[in-house]
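Section handout, structural biology tutorial.
Before the tutorial, make sure you can parse a SMILES string by hand: atoms, branches in parentheses, ring closures as digits. In the record below the ligand is zinc ion, and the chain has 171 residues. In the tutorial you will relate the predicted structure tokens back to the input. Do not try to memorize them.
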Amino acid sequence: MIDHLPERLDLLATAEAGRALQGRMPLARLERVLPALVSSDGELQVVFELGKDPAGVRFLAGTIQGEVTLQCQRCLEPVVQALDLKFRLGLVQDEAAVAGLPDHYEALLVTGEPASVAEIVSDEVLLALPLVPLHQQDARCEGIMKDYQPSANETRESPFAVLAELKQKQP
Ligand SMILES: [Zn+2]
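Predicted structure of the complex:
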């Protein structure tokens, strides 16, 4: 296991050689993920394993672990989302090769250029983020929902009661 994540990696050559790498990825480097985050502080623990399976498929497997802070869409306060991701990508050089990939691989299209490690991590993190982040079992957050309920009841009040209220408010 190599204790370093390079900025860019020649995936095909590394898979051919068979290598495992690990390192920390600062959240600040995940540019496409940042708009979803409340804070860019922190980092993720990333492990990449590259190799060639018995069928000759060159792959990138790995894990991403850590925490990101999102904005709760109910109370708008920060909500911490733990990440514990596993992925297994089959490296393909063109669209036609995607169909030939065994089912247990997701396809990752590789070009002649070394791939950005931050981009690969960003893709996996974006896939894992909830579409609508919400606090789970947070009394303060659910309290907002309770506060919200009575306004729904108000609309059921008799129009005469509303009229009476309006009259009282007049000077
Ligand atoms: Zn909330």
